[in-house]
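During the no-cost extension, the postdoctoral fellow (Dr. R.K.) reprocessed legacy sequence entries with the updated structure-token encoder. One reprocessed record is reproduced below for audit purposes.
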Amino acid sequence: MLLLQAPPPTRFDLNFTLFGFPIQVHPLFWVIGLLFGASSTNLISILLWVFTIFISILIHELGHALAMRYYGQSSRIVLHGAGGVTIPESVAWGSRYANVALTPNQQILISFAGPGAGFLLALLIMLSVAFTGGVVVPNAAYLFGIVPFPYAHYPNGSALINSLVMTFLWVNVFWGLVNLLPVYPLDGGHIARYIILQFDPWNGLQKSLWLSVYVGAAIALLSLIVLSSTYMALLFGLLAFQSYQILQSRSPL
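Re-encoded structure tokens follow.
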């Protein structure tokens, strides 16, 4: 199911280690950047999208991984065709291995750390633009007119630099906000689940899934009718359906 688990390794994977975290990049991951850049006929623009998506999702997952490490949980990162996932790993416990028991509040902070890392990257980019002679102003109409968006521009800079800056900001601000919506398995869905579970340990998971169904369906309709975005409509429609499927597979409480 989309985003719920990592794909199995292939011989075409890119594997490396960063800050002590094993990282696997599935070959289908590169398709994401190509799809976002597909509207451009310029090869450089397409490559910019691939580079931006790779760095942004990697930093997002590193945010999760660093938060897990802070709480004593080891992890590895997999970038795949539907985005990325940070997978907890067992830690040494004497002569055996065991999983780290995390509290709901720790889980919430770990879930927020991914989008938070993206917001921090966007802030650093905006500060860099401002300190190097560029212009940073809010542009409320940029993201479909629904959220304020930081607009950064170098008046005397090249179109390539301006395009790179704006692409980084769009990916990390807009998709960071989208990722915080209470729709499972997005980070916001995990955050909503652990918040609700603290108030209702018995039925909290079921309530969080119903919230995911309703919000996902509403965003899908909004995307189709107001934003005219077929991609967003299909994405959130699928996520809402997945949450409904999970509900149907669970035995009645």
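DSSP finds seven helices and eight strands in the chain. The longest strand covers residues 74-80. The remaining legacy entries will be reprocessed before the final report is submitted.
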